[in-house]
Each structure stands twice: as structure tokens, then as C-alpha cells.
Amino acid sequence: MMYVENDDDIREFILDGITSERAASRAARAELEGMAIRMPAYRGWVDDRELADLVAAFRVLSGMSAPAPGTLEGEGHDRARRLECLACHGPGGSGGLPNPGSLTGFVPGWYGAEFEDLVRDRAEFDAWVREGSLPRLEEHPVASRFLARQRIRMPAYARLTDEDLDALWAYAAWLDRTSGGAATGAPSP
Predict the structure, then answer these.
(1) Which one in 13, 159, 169, 182 has a CA-CA gap of 20 to 30 Å to 52?
(2) What's the pLDDT tens digit per position in 143-180?
(3) Measured between alpha carbons, how far is 66 from 86 in angstroms, rounded to an integer?
(4) What's the chain look like in SS3?
(5) Please, what is the end-to-end C-alpha distance for the chain in angstroms?
(6) Tally of CB atoms within 10 A around 138
(7) Which pLDDT band holds residue 118 (cuts at 50, 70, 90)?
(8) Which residues pair with 106 in a beta bridge?
(9) Sign of CA dihedral 106, 111, 113, 119
């Protein structure tokens, strides 16, 4: 994080393992050569969508990007932290803990393709949070098998208010917008 100041720097760091500014510095190149562990370069390994997701995740995880305090999105972020959602769904809702037995092997984030597959609209989001699952998935022959065998299960938060859900949904929508709208079914508050 100390070497990046904006999205272009983050992209360069991911793709080349170093920013162009640092690469132009003789002292920085010498420092890099002396390091036992260096940032690998991922140019040619990640596509544009993956790069956009990585940049967005870095911004959220590093604290470079956060919802404005006093906004519905900011309240959603605060509620997600207070309810300890981020303990499983990862910092900033970016994706979380390994989840053996689940379809993907990890607890999904609150934006991107996995979120879109699990939560198709606001009604499903509310049901998922309040009930800890969805009838659509429980009744599906393949999905139900993965739901049954996953080690970490979504708890039911039946006592959350509509205001809580509004704020959490707004935060999920903010994450999707911040990620560049990577999910095609972007949530809208």
C-alpha cells in the first residue's frame, strides 16, 4: 500500500509487481533486487474483469475506499462490522473464510459473480440474511447437496429490522459500484 496512490498504481503493481514510478527509480530497483520476497507480476495471468475486481478489493481492504460516514452505505458497513458479517465474508465484504464442502470452497463476498449467483434480487438478499438460506437453493438437487455439506453455514438473522436490511443492501450495492459493476445484476438500494 505504501507504493500506490491511485487505481493506475494499483493496476501496475498487480500486473508488473512494481509501479512504473518505482521501476524508473534506480534506488527502488536496487531495493527490489535485494528483497527475498517480491510482489509477483500477474500480467498475462488475469483478465480485465479479474483486474478490476482485484483493484476494487485492494481499495476496500487497504482502506483507500470506504463508504462516506453518515450515508446509508456507511451505516451498512458499520452494521456489517457490528454484526460480525465481515468475520466470515472477509474485510469489506470482499470474500472470506475457506469453507470446505461449499461449491466454491470459500464464503462468498458481497459483490461479483458469486454474489450474483447466490442473491438474484433484494427479496432474496432479505431472505438469505433473515433465514440463513434460500428455498430456491435448498430445493435445487445440486445446490442443496453443497449447502448440506458446507462447514460454515450462514446464520439466520431473523431479528434484523427493515432498516438494518436497507443499510446492508446499500453497502452491498456500494461494493458492487466500487468494484466497477463487475456483477451484471448489480444491486440497487
Answers:
(1) 169
(2) 899 989 999 999 999 999 999 999 999 999 998 887 75
(3) 14
(4) CCCCCCHHHHHHHHHHCCCHHHHCCHHHHHHHHCCCCCCCCCCCCCCHHHHHHHHHHHHHHHCCCCCCCCCHHHHHHHHHHHCCCHHHHCHHHCCCCECCCCCCCECCCCCCHHHHHHCCCHHHHHHHHHHCCCHHHHCCHHHHHHHHHCCCCCCCCCCCCHHHHHHHHHHHHHHHHHCCCCCCCCCCC
(5) 31
(6) 12
(7) confident
(8) 98
(9) positive
Distance of CA 65 to the CA centre of its chain: 12
The C-alpha cell that represents 44 in the structure block: 498475462
Provide the pLDDT for residue 124. 95
Cβ within 8 Å of residue 14, ≥6 positions away: 42, 46, 51, 54, 55, 58
Backbone angles phi, psi at 183, to 5 degrees: -80, 130
What structural domains and CATH numbers belong to the chain? 7-45 (no CATH), 68-178 (1.10.760)
C-alpha cell at 54: 482485484
| Residue 37 identity (one-letter amino acid) | I
